[in-house]
């Protein structure tokens, strides 16, 4: 499930809630997130961070306003 959010400084973000049924441990999740955060490419939204609270896991991405990824990649924007 994805939703729009806002940081305290007013920056818009996209939040993605991950399934708690994945069976992945907390340390494995943190390691995977750290690897994803190192990926940078013009067609990838940047992963800004994550949150783990009990069994809930959220990924925090930069927000891409007004268009879908499909529109951006096809050059129709």
Automatic annotation (TrEMBL):
PROSITE patterns: PROTEIN_KINASE_DOM. Keywords: Lectin. Residues 1-77 form the Protein kinase domain. The keyword Iron does not apply. It comes from Artemisia annua (Sweet wormwood). The keyword RNA-binding does not apply. GO terms for molecular function: ATP binding; carbohydrate binding; protein kinase activity. This is Concanavalin A-like lectin/glucanase, subgroup.
């Amino acid at each position: 499930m994805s939703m729009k959010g806002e940081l305290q400084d007013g920056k818009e973000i996209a939040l993605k809630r991950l399934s708690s049924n994945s069976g992945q441990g907390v340390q494995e999740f943190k390691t995977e997130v750290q690897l994803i955060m190192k990926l940078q490419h013009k067609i990838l939204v940047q992963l800004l961070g994550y949150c783990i609270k009990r069994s809930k896991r959220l990924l925090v991405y930069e927000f891409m306003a007004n268009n879908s990824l499909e529109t951006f990649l096809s050059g129709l924007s």
